[in-house]
UniProtKB/TrEMBL annotation:
Gene3D superfamilies: 1.25.40.390. Pfam families: SusD-like_2. This is SusD/RagB family nutrient-binding outer membrane lipoprotein. The keyword Lipoprotein applies. Keywords: Lipoprotein. InterPro entries: SusD-like_2, TPR-like_helical_dom_sf. It comes from Agaribacillus aureus.
Length: 503
């Protein structure tokens, strides 16, 4: 009887395994399919936190070049205008990988959705892709665009001119905006870290992208710039700090989710310090944000005061580096309590109402969709928005301090250039920490704030760089098209060549 039962159960198990073989042998913790929302979320997080190489590009390159940061370590050569290929390579590769992911997300959305859900998802994914294309071409110049990301179909893509890329991005952006309605359902929901799928916010975000891109080409194609900016000024734009696009970083949790600056600030050998130009600008304006943005020097704290704020100069000479390294506690670092702490989630700014207001002020100053009186209104709105957004409101910045600052510095005056300098200086302050790429692009476009190069000549002869170089593999694996693109650059594939709109 025992043998019969064993035989019976053996047959039963055999049949059961055969009937459910595929299900039993499929790991449930490793899904074989992915949805469009998952890829969209990943690109959102990576593009503004990890990819774009925060440490390499945002701090050691752009942040040092536009003098928000200073660095005490002479080994970080990009801080004093000497190139390291892997920094350029990381920026290039990260952007193409993210754009490729978004292309795949569109494909998946088309397979998994239809009707309004498909329309909305494709439009929002498209807007994010346009943002990444603009950032890539703004920093590098002419890049593979129409023939890019075709895989084995084309491994040697041509480099499209930045002018043609911008023209196509404007067309694509208008189409994406036209495919969205403020009343659309929030199909992306929690997959959208910026707006929770809120379509009205994405429309405002896209309209500001159009305004920003229009201003970006103001020196290269004034006619197109004016028509684009004027149209954007007449559209629905972010109207308060409640419309800010902030990437949450989930404070009070594991370090992997913290602000990228938090991991860097505690390093002893290569920690970023505050730039001398930033510190001295805030001090000269008697800016109440100084102590929230920047820490006092360690020696002034340990000595019982008075508290001192001292930044590291741009591109120090060898002699300056020696002095800085011997006296590191005499220099200030960014204030991670409010900017990059696990105990306080400031989030990472992707777009702020302050930035929008300053862009509107410039547009109105130019007479593109506004008047001189409008420029003044937008300028003051920008200052107030900048001083009441996170982390300044949470840090307790008093309304009376804001009123006093606006009274002292909130009135546009002087020539066009003098008023533009006022606007751009305030925008430059807002870009500190999270938007160094924008600070770099806006300084190149307008020349404001006025920056003095450091004493270290580097490979630019002591001139602040104007662009990043191409990925090293392009010269090796795509030589003909690389050479064609380089031939269009005024100084070859170097830091000193200017992109199309940088005139």
């Amino acid at each position: 009887m025992k043998k019969i039962l064993i035989f019976f159960f053996a047959i039963l198990i055999s049949v059961s395994c055969t009937d459910n073989f595929e299900e039993i042998n499929t790991r449930q913790d490793q899904p074989t399919t992915v949805n469009a929302e998952f890829l969209f979320s990943g690109v959102l997080r990576d593009s503004f936190k990890e990819k774009g190489s925060y440490w390499l590009n945002s701090i050691l390159e752009w942040g040092n070049w536009i003098q928000h940061y200073g660095n005490q370590n002479a080994g970080f050569t990009t801080a004093h205008y000497i190139d390291i290929d892997r920094y350029n390579d990381a920026f290039w590769a990260d952007h193409y990988e993210s754009i490729s992911d978004l292309r795949f997300a569109k494909q998946l959305a088309a397979e998994q959705n239809s009707g309004d859900a498909l329309r909305v998802k494709l439009a929002i994914i498209e807007i994010l892709e346009i943002v990444l294309w603009q950032r890539l071409t703004d920093v590098v110049g002419d890049v593979p665009y129409n023939e890019a990301i075709l895989g084995s179909e084309n491994t040697t893509p041509t480099f499209d001119t930045q002018q043609s890329i911008y023209s196509d991005l404007f067309t694509r952006l208008d189409a994406a905006i036209g495919n969205l309605n403020a009343s659309d359902f929030e199909f992306l929901g929690g997959a959208d870290f910026l707006y929770g799928g809120n379509v009205e916010n994405w429309i405002k975000f896209a309209n500001f992208q159009k305004l920003k891109m229009g201003l970006r080409i103001s020196n290269a194609d004034a006619g197109l710039a004016q028509s684009t900016v004027t149209a954007a000024m007449g559209s629905s734009l972010p109207a308060s700090n409640g419309d800010n696009a902030i990437l949450p970083l989930i404070g009070n949790t594991e370090a992997a989710n913290e602000h990228p600056l938090a991991d860097l600030i505690d390093r002893t050998v290569d920690a970023p310090y505050a730039g001398e130009t930033l510190v001295e600008t805030l001090k000269s304006l008697n800016d109440p944000r100084l102590g929230i943005m920047i820490n006092p020097t360690a020696n002034s704290i340990s000595g019982g005061g008075p508290l001192e704020y001292v930044g590291i100069p741009a591109a120090p000479s060898d002699a300056q580096y020696a002095t800085i390294n011997a006296n590191q506690d005499d220099f200030s670092r960014p204030n991670t309590t409010w900017y990059a702490s696990l105990d306080f989630d400031k989030g990472l700014n992707v777009m702020t109402f302050a930035e929008v207001s300053f862009a509107k002020a410039e547009a109105a100053l130019r007479g593109w969709g506004g008047t001189g009186a409008d420029a003044q209104t937008y300028f003051e709105e920008g200052i107030r928005a900048a001083m009441t957004m996170t982390p300044f409101a949470e840090a307790g910045l008093a309304s009376t301090d804001i009123d006093d600052y606006v009274t002292a510095h909130g009135t546009l005056a002087g020539t066009f250039d003098e008023q533009l300098e006022q606007i751009q200086t305030q925008k430059w302050i807002v870009f500190f920490v999270d938007q160094e790429d924008e600070a770099f692009s806006e300084w190149r476009r307008t020349g404001f704030p006025q920056l003095t190069p450091g004493l270290n000549p580097g490979e630019t002869g002591g001139t602040i760089p104007r662009r990043l170089k191409y990925h090293a593999n392009e010269e090796l694996l795509n030589e003909a098209n690389y050479n064609s693109a380089v031939s269009r650059l005024s100084n070859g594939d170097t830091f000193m060549s200017r992109v199309w709109w940088d005139q």
